[in-house]
Amino acid sequence: MRNLAISIVLSVFLSACAGNNSSLSNDTLTNNGDGTIFSEKFQLQWQKSISKRFNNKEDAEEYVKSLSLGGHNDWRIPTKAESHNLFFSMDFGNANAKDLQMKMDGSMWIVLGNGQIQAGAWDAGETCCIVRTFKKDSKGGVRAVRP
Question: How many domains, the chain?
């Protein structure tokens, strides 16, 4: 009876993890071959490579304002949610960083919910699900997004 109870609890826990991941995992990421990646689910175009590291947000903002890539010049710093979704799509989606030839580690600039710009990195947690936590930093690169 005890083993049955443990099996049920474990099954519910693992099902919850799989269910939480499935909402973002069906994103399709496509390498456009022009230095950009397209997210089908979120209709966002991402800069494939991370820029050099910037020591302050002003330099990061200036970088995206002057960026011309993939025939577009309307690039911006991604929001925290957009950045998280990209990592989640890479963790659970149809492609991985190696397939798309994308470097996914390192500190990057993002726009927080309050509009402030902050550098930081997404750390993967140690659970049955990959849980990413944003760790603040004082400098980072930019992976620009549009629109």
Answer: 1
